[in-house]
């Protein structure tokens, strides 16, 4: 279980995150939503150990994250940033293999190579396995980064805007991959999302942030409401229900 | 499972190709060093040179062991060291322009040499020059690290700091040169040209210690260097201690640079061009890139020195000049022929 | 009317007088201009008399003192303070620049009649900049053996020290002729490797050092090389197997050999050369014929001293009675007017 309590983060006297509490069980997907600049990315970076929170504790499988070495942390948590690196001079296989880094010292073993090959195959990347990462399309890059996160073999996946800049088909593919990973491997995922409809459809719970504070947290049906959208985003919208997931249509 | 094997096989095939490129470089290096060993002012021919290598044949033995071999070994060491240092700088700073020169390390080493030449007085000696050059080379890299500590170790900060340091020390060198007498100005100019004539086994000992102690560490970190390209955040999330890697990477690369150029003077361009040539062929994986780039540097400097001392014999064309003459056209050729987006 | 005529007459007379005076003065001025050929081969007009001298090079300053014109010097080069004992009485003069650069404002303020500098440095710009102030640039090298006499003579004429100049020239000629005559009895010319301050940088054809070596009856092993100051490989020197190795040094000593109290720095340089890898196979090293010589007596006004030393080292049998140190003492005392001091060569300082 990943549990976060009383997390604070501030930058130059401005509070970015205030008093964040999260409990995430294995096999669940949590989406963090909220307007731009509300602290979603910062929250993910704090959990991944990239930024140091000011206050609060993060416990991963009942271990205090602040006492874990970076490499130990990397074996428990994988993080996929919002934007793919603009220049990454490796081929797809190497890029996915990078995910094995926390488990390897000198050179990857045969087991590592096999594992990477399997992930590449299962994610349908065989055809581009030896192509240079820089030559891929945005959707392909996102998939490769996801594959890297899978290769990292961590319990918790942190994905920052995994569907931004993707077309509809790739959005669906990526989201299905994520839920497949969570269900199949017994992992859990935290997603920072802009697309409320995707979040609603694929998440078990949604956390809505407003100015660094938790506005509301719970089942998608409790969070995606006309009132909440109005007060957090300042947008009038209608909610439609389909297959017990709320979908939002702004007026 | 069959599909897996297929992908693995292809991947291993690719790695094999890169590996065989390194073997090819070793073979080329072997032949070039044979040629280098047999070339010289004395009438020792190809065969005699090799007999003298293993047999005590008086003068010939002395020529091979005391004059030719130190020169060849030093050329190789310096080429290897500067190329590897350049590779590391480029990885750490994520900048294709990074090299011992862009970071001001070469120019501050040069400033050290100039100071020793101008103010050395009666203590003036090659060791004093090398010592001060080494000291200033390290000083500038610590300056960069200090700035990085204050302002964060982002590649942009470091490159900007490096360029500022470069200009500062070259101006200081120019100032001291300007103050110098005719003879001293000559000496300074000669130092900046670079020279391998003054090398003995003692100097080789010092430089090889630096180069060979750091190479295993850098290879051990090759994965981390790869990850730096993915961005600091991704690298951190994959367990890389980015600050540490950047700091020690800079320190090691500076140590190699300082040791290499303090005895031989400024050998231009290798630190910039060798990593790029290697990258165009083997790609961005530092596990292959570091050795390939080191070998290319070794070959280029050795070839340059051999040409420099035979083309116009017995006059020696300074190594720094020939290196650029060989490196630049080759680099252009690859730049035009390169596969797209290698960097 | 008469009055008018008278007035006109007086006025005309006055004007004529004025004009004639002016003309006369101009004539006088022209008469006082001498024309000399400088080191670049150009003819320069110098107005006489020259009372105030600014000097940018130590070579020129030494010759000026040798022709007893030291008291005319009003401005000197900045490095002079590094050798205060030798340049006694001159070090406190205003510093106006170095051999390669002149400070135009300082020199305009100092207002000397002429500035003496090398043929090539500072650049041609200098004439353009200081001519408008009525300051003449005289370019004289004093470091080329073949031109030394001509240049001394030119300087003598400029400074109206023709007598002193011819004394110096006579002294040069006497000693050079002595060596030239003595060398006629032999057709041996031992091979010499000459090295400058930078290790393995020698002096080829077209350098002052080469001329000195040849004059002293030596064969420069680098005589065929096309670059004046090339770097060569140790192996090539080893193959040429020179009989004598000559190292010229400026840096390794304390800038000024005149104030040196022992020959240890020179000795250290020699030991290092003898210990170079594989050089124990060179005949010069085997026989101990490795000599270190200070730049002071190398190319320059004292080249004759250097030549005497080299000649004696190369042909000890012929020049048994030649005493280069005595010659140096004589020169310092007679032409520089100071006491002989310091160490200039090793071995053989004493």
Explain what the structure shows.
The complex is a heterotrimer of chains A (251), B (343) and C (350). Chain A is of the alpha/beta class and 251 residues long. Helix content of chain A is 34%, strand content 29%. Chain A has helices at residues 40-48, 70-76, 92-97, 110-122, 138-151, 168-185, 196-202, 220-223, 226-233, and strands spanning 2-11, 14-24, 29-33, 55-60, 63-64, 77-80, 156-160, 188-192, 205-210, 213-218, 237-242, 245-250. In chain A, the strands form three sheets. In chain A, strands 6-7-8-3-9-10 form a six-stranded mixed β-sheet, sandwiched between helices. Chain A has a four-stranded antiparallel β-sheet with strand order 2-1-4-5, with helices on one face. In chain A, strands 11-12 form a two-stranded antiparallel ribbon. In chain C, strands 6-5-4-3-7-8 form a six-stranded mixed β-sheet. In chain C, strands 10-9-12-13-14 form a five-stranded mixed β-sheet, with helices on both faces. In chain C, α5 packs antiparallel against α6. Chain C is elongated, with a radius of gyration of 25 Å. β1 (315-316) of chain B pairs antiparallel with β11 of chain C, so a sheet runs across the interface.
Layout of secondary structure:
The complex is a heterotrimer of chains A (251), B (343) and C (350).
Chain A: E1 2-11, E2 14-24, E3 29-33, H1 40-48, E4 55-60, E5 63-64, H2 70-76, E6 77-80, H3 92-97, H4 110-122, H5 138-151, E7 156-160, H6 168-185, E8 188-192, H7 196-202, E9 205-210, E10 213-218, H8 220-223, H9 226-233, E11 237-242, E12 245-250
Parallel strand pairs in A: 3-8, 3-9, 6-7, 7-8
Antiparallel strand pairs in A: 1-2, 1-4, 4-5, 9-10, 11-12
Chain B: H1 2-38, H2 46-54, H3 59-93, H4 105-119, H5 126-151, H6 155-179, H7 182-193, H8 201-220, H9 222-228, H10 232-237, H11 242-264, H12 270-282, H13 286-310, E1 315-316, H14 319-337
Helix pairs in contact in B: 1-2, 1-13, 2-3, 3-8, 3-11, 3-12, 3-13, 4-5, 4-6, 4-7, 4-11, 5-6, 5-11, 8-11, 8-13, 12-13, 12-14, 13-14
Chain C: H1 2-31, E1 33-37, E2 43-47, E3 53-55, H2 58-66, E4 73-77, E5 95-98, E6 101-102, H3 104-110, E7 114-117, H4 125-130, E8 136-139, H5 148-158, H6 162-183, E9 191-195, H7 208-215, E10 219-220, E11 231-232, H8 234-240, E12 244-249, H9 264-274, H10 283-286, E13 290-294, H11 303-314, H12 324-336, E14 345-346
Helix pairs in contact in C: 5-6, 11-12
